[in-house]
Amino acid sequence: MTTLRPMRSQAGYTLAEMLVTSAVIALVMAGLLTLIQTGSQTWVVGANRSEAQQNARLVVQRLANEIRGGGWDPRNTQSFAAIQALAPPQTGFTISNDWNADSLIQTNVLVAVSGTNRGEQITYDFVSGNLRRQESMVDASPVTLTEVSSITFTYRNADDVEVTNAHVAANALNIRTVEITVVTAPDNQATSNAQKVSVTSTIRARVRNR
Fold first, then answer.
1. Those residues with Cβ within 8 angstroms of residue 3's Cβ, 6 or more apart along the chain or in another chain
2. Which residues are within 8 A (CB) of 170 and not within 5 positions of it... i.e. 6 or more apart?
3. pLDDT > 70: what percent of the chain?
4. Is the pLDDT of residue 1 over 70?
5. How far apart are the first and last CA of the chain?
6. 90 in helix, strand or coil?
7. Of 81, 75, 76, 94, the residue nearest 153 (C-alpha)
8. What pTM value is reported for the model?
9. What is d(CA 28, CA 210) in angstroms, rounded to the nearest whole number?
10. What residues form DSSP beta bridges with 154?
11. Using one digit for the tens of pLDDT, what is the confidence trace for 35-68?
12. Integer CA distances (angstroms), 36 to 30, 41, 116, 119, 150, in order
């Protein structure tokens, strides 16, 4: 006698079930993609900000070190300004040092200082996004140090009051502190506005020789 086995159901997934499953998978994938993009964007912004901070630190440290050492006046004549702003509309200043102790600041002399040839005047200026430095009798033309978004200088006297018209020699004699504010960006700025970063750094440098 033949025994009939019950037939198993041959039914598969319905179209509605497949659509629901596809929708759920799409939602999960969209969430993962957003998470990955957010993490990537955060990393890029963090890396760019770190680079911009390093750029700003290098700029202000070099400026501050030279400002602090400016005004070398071995005869204590006080006859020249340690720091003098450039005439407007220029942005920048000159640093003077009487290396040969003749009570004069001369741009045509070269003096050996601790084994290094030095000129008696250093000029910093900011032109078309470039911070430049030129030392008399050392540099034939201004040397670009770095690119910065913007930089401003505020000059203060011994009482911490701002010195106005600091490009005028008589007023420049009163400069004792320079306040530097610089805005920098990473070397390779992101094209996306969400990833663009800039860093503002401010430092005050006191002239030690006055």
1. none
2. none
3. 80
4. no
5. 121
6. coil
7. 94
8. 0.75
9. 68
10. 179
11. 766 665 665 556 666 766 676 778 888 899 999 9
12. 10, 9, 53, 55, 34
